[in-house]
Amino acid sequence: MARKSVTVLVAGSWGTALARVLADNGHAVTLWTRNEAQAKEINEQRRNSRFLKEAELPEGITAVTDMEAAVSGADAVVFVSPSSATREVARAARPYLRRDALIVHATKGFETDTLKRMSVVLSEELNRPTEEIVDLSGPSHAEEVIDRHPTTVVVASSRLDRAEAAQDLFMNDSYFRVYTNSDIIGVETAGAIKNIIALGAGLSDGLGFGDNAKAALITRGLAEIARLGNAMGASPLTFAGLAGVGDLIVTCTSRHSRNWRAGSMLAQGLALEEVLEKMGMVVEGVRTTKAAQRLSEIHSVEMPITQQLYKVLFEGKSPSEAVGALMGRVRTHENENLNL
User: Fold this and answer.
1) What are the residue numbers of the active site?
2) Do domains 5-182 and 185-327 have the same CATH topology?
């Protein structure tokens, strides 16, 4: 593939890991950050110590703090900002974007106030049709990608040519395999809701429960993801793929998962504010729980795990009480309303 000029917004852990993939693929990569000290460290020491302490970054990555310098002339722009900041970052980037630039995002969450998916937010702020936006998702921890461990993801867009362009940009033969998918609604929904289930998995482990409990949580969590996704217009097949069960497994079982760690700390008695302060990084599952609770009401979808986690996070319910509420629910048939 021809060498491209690619800009990654912003320089968090996942943005930095994707920047390495792109640089390894021979592209000229610009990594944007608001933080002057962070940009200086990346450029001079080839480190991003706040997010990926041990990783040494290749020379093909240049960090900048000026948005115009970052975005102007880029063949592709990859948004990897937290969901709460994506609209602001897109608004700042819009004046400098080439009209034919490929737009990709790798953010897993909903906009809390509007309940919109990230492709819709980007479409609105960049004045692009939603079908031109591509979502990159799937089971992928930045800590493993930065070390070039084998990873497989999916890029989703309702326009196959856009998805294939993103596939060509990111895929390599050594460690980063990319599939295409036309169901961006399902891929975005799965990527967001799995963070809620990962909070629950961390909470379960923090309470000292075993593999039986976590396996049940993951399985029934997948049912919740599928129910909401289907109600929003997704394909059921998406939830059996990389963006669905694949991402759910890795986020619920890995020591790298911020959401799992946050859930585990909650189970140990820490208040939500203490957990977020100790994490020092965005925990998307917290915001997503609030959004998913509202979406379940709007679409009349039963999401008991999400509901109980909402009560733990925002209404002061104890984790042990939440588990009791889930175990004591009215008996039902496993496949009822599963839609998977």
Assistant:
1) 194
2) no
Handedness of CA 163, 176, 22, 2 (dihedral sign): negative
Q: Is 258 annotated as a binding residue?
A: yes
Task: State the first-to-last Cα distance of the chain, in angstroms, to the nearest integer.
Answer: 37
CATH class of 185-327: mainly alpha
- Tell me whether residue 32 is annotated as binding: no
Show me where the domains of the chain are located: 5-182, 185-327
Q: Is 116 annotated as a binding residue?
A: no
CB of 271 within 8 A of CB of 93? no
**How far is it, in rounded angstroms, from Cα 288 to Cα 290?**
5
CA–CA distance, 5 with 157 (Å, rounded to integer): 21
Each residue of 30-57: pLDDT tens digit? 999 999 999 999 999 999 999 999 899 9
6, 32 in Cβ contact below 8 A?
A: no
For the segment 92-119, the average pLDDT, to the nearest whole number, is 97
Q: Give the model confidence (pLDDT) of 183-211 as tens digits.
A: 999 999 999 999 999 999 999 999 999 99
CA separation for the pair 333, 292 (Å, rounded): 24
Q: Is 163 annotated as a binding-site member? A: no
